[in-house]
Amino acid sequence: MGDLKFSRLFLVVTFLVFLGVCRVSVAASAVQQKKNTYIIHVAKSQMPASFDDHTRWYDSSLKSVSESAEMLYTYNNAIHGFATRLTAQEAKSLQDQPGILYVLPEVKYELHTTRTPTFLGLEQSANLFPESDSESDVIVAVLDTGVWPESKSFDDTGMGPVPASWKGACETGTNFTSNHCNKKLIGARYFSTGYEATLGPIDVTKESKSPRDDDGHGTHTSTTAAGAIVGGASLFGYASGSARGMAHRARVAVYKVCWIGGCFSSDILAAIDGAIADNVNILSLSLGGGTADYYRDSVAIGAFSAMEKGIFVSCSAGNAGPSAYTLSNLAPWITTVGAGTLDRDFPAYVSLGNGQNFSGVSLYKGDSLPAKLLPFVYAGNASNSTNGNLCMTGTLIPEKVKGKIVLCDRGINPRVQKGAVVKGAGGAGMVLANTAANGEELVADAHLLPASTVGQKSGDAIRDYVLSDANPTATILFEGTKVGIEPSPVVAAFSSRGPNAITPDILKPDLIAPGVNIIAGWTGAVGPTGLAEDPRRVEFNIISGTSMSCPHVSGLAAFVKGAHPDWSPAAIRSALMTTAYTAYKNGGKKLIDVSTGKASTPYDHGAGHVNPVAALNPGLVYDLTTEDYLNFLCALNYTSMQIQGVARRNYSCGAGKTYSIGDFNYPSFSVSLQTQVIGGGGGSSSGGGSKSVVKHTRTLTNVGGGSGGSTYKVSISTTSPAVKITVEPDTLTFTKAYEKKSYTVTFSATSMPSNTNEFGRIEWSDGKHVVGSPVVISWI
Question: Per the database record, which ranges form the Inhibitor I9 domain (predicted)?
């Protein structure tokens, strides 16, 4: 009997083990069979002679690993290749096929989410540099969430015929027809195939499967870049005045690549591919993903192809500041833009029961608070959650906040959502306090209830009061719009910072532009907060982010392009960078980083804050050709295959040739000095015991004109006596337009503690023009 029981037990255990093994095998099989989107980069030059069309070759290669797979896109301009859905095993098999360079997984990108023309001095440019008709021939392409064509910023009154160079289209779709385009908004397309392959069909009850913008972000960025002049613009009376894009006479072409679930690289690449074919002049992308080597970064690869066609590419730096190494869009053929503030603010004062007053900001427009102090409570003491201080959905106890002003801490959930949570719980108002992550940076919001955002120091003092007083009270006073704020600009705390995580020898960001509290066109589909519970509809909205600074530079590039149609993208970027300023016009003090309250560095502001009027006549430029960029890739020791992945061509670095990033003709300097400690002891040295010397060569092109010639003399500044910078020659004389002259910079320094940085500046001036370059020196 015992043996029978044991046999039955053995059979049961064996069956269970077998069942478990089967489940594991099925699970493993499911993983193997799961399909994902891949972008396939192909060496077109290796197409077998048996094929007369490259798409047939692509299809044949694909069918060799999967009979059921279909191409989502074929790419002809941004890359050579296609996008498809494959299992991991199929992707691996395809990678081994002849002519296949790379099989790259789909990447999800996120959006980097009036007063400006006056602040930038554009209103004086009409007198200094009369507007050229050629600006209306410039086409600015914006890859974003689409467009709200009814915006007054797309009024085409007075505009001439669409440029003959335009080859694009105005696509129809949900709530959008070709009639929505005009002589201002000349093109509108949408790309969703990659998105839908991953997340399923677009729900047209929630967003339009068309170029129409149901989010607002795309309309804001496109009208910032090139919106028409609209008088009487404001948000609830805030920032009232004339709204206009940076290049208000330029044309706009919109490419919708971002949806509720994000922006996918296969769609972005398809949009770049289409924009190149459409003959645009400027590409503006206020989005970013993680950092990857250039040959694995779809935006970088597409941007390289655009650059080759003479298209200027501007991208946002990201909103992950103030931490270091947080930048996106690092390729040197992309102009990477950080964010600064304007000299305009929207004060909303918090008045406490103890008589203290604190300055904050707000765009609230609605019923005022009662003309008396109201009970005041800290959210952390009125919550059922351990992180109740953040005013997250469902955390506040209505009985403890009803009729009171609530102090919430900034972080995790959106600022405006915190106010909605307070309002939903019966709160009368909200004070939103910055934490250390945001410091004294004040970003205004169109709150759903009376609310003010205050800096960290004020927030700490207010929190001390509400937690220590037996009966704390408060109120909020709204003061409207105030201009002339000093100092301005300051570097926004959220603006992503260097160093460059991919190529430290290329300084990024390139420059900063206005990105805080920017007013521009908006969608009619959602309110200014973007929250579902916000019933308000506005024509203009005020929002912040490097998403806002990027289209400023895109539009300014169009502005420069209109004045100088023959300039290359590198020349335009150089003009914007070398004329940027790093000190305040009044007093000469260095630009401030709001996250620290101290002087910002080139890791924060790049070459400085954009100065478009000066950029129209920079005197000299650092120009670059496609071959220069290829040599740059050689200096990175890229293989032929990796270079082909970026540049779509067979290019072999010369075996006997020396390539140096130091000879790459970039308008800034980022120098790594590797020092050796002399005299033992180990670790870093901090005295004069060792030296390191690095030489960089640059070439300047004279665009200042003038047959009489011009002579430029160099000036050098550094922040440390340990750094020595010499320039040879120290004088450059130009006798004709577009003449080129080269110089060599020698950087030498005594050793410093490892992983420290020093900063400097090299400027060339002929008495009229100042051509400036930032310098960063790092000790490794």
Answer: 37-112
